[in-house]
Here is the input.
Amino acid sequence: MYSFQGPTKSTPDRSQTPKKRSTGDWVHDESLIAEQLVRSLAFLGPQGNQDLRNAFVIIIGLGGVGSSAATSLVCSGVGRIRGMQQLHGKTWGLQK
Here is the structure.
């Protein structure tokens, strides 16, 4: 195990396996999700956070603003996102 001071000799306690949630093919570690979303959990509460994780968002247009919005929605904990982009052979509007 490593820390900011370098390698340590302690090993993590594996006696308690974290609670996991399966959604389709993905398995999510609940403790990791709670740690990553601690600010939104404090703001929204447990029920609001669960509603956010169960939300489905469609983004039409994945250019500069749409791709940034998709990234923000994923980072905030939205469970499912579908993006749609009509290209017509032009790639200048896509975020690189």
Summary: Strands lie at 2-3, 6-7, 20-23, 26-29, 56-60, 80-84. The mean pLDDT is 74. The helical segments are 30-36, 38-54, 64-76.
